[in-house]
User: Which sequence fits this backbone?
């Protein structure tokens, strides 16, 4: 049970990191395109 909880926490962190990276990447692309 503890192992599955740790895995879920890892995936939650991974999803958040991916979301932040995607937002940052999109922002940088927008800056490049509209500059």
Assistant:
């Amino acid at each position: 049970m503890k192992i599955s909880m740790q895995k879920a926490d890892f995936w939650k962190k991974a999803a958040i990191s991916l979301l932040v990276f995607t937002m940052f990447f999109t922002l940088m692309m927008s800056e490049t395109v509209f500059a």
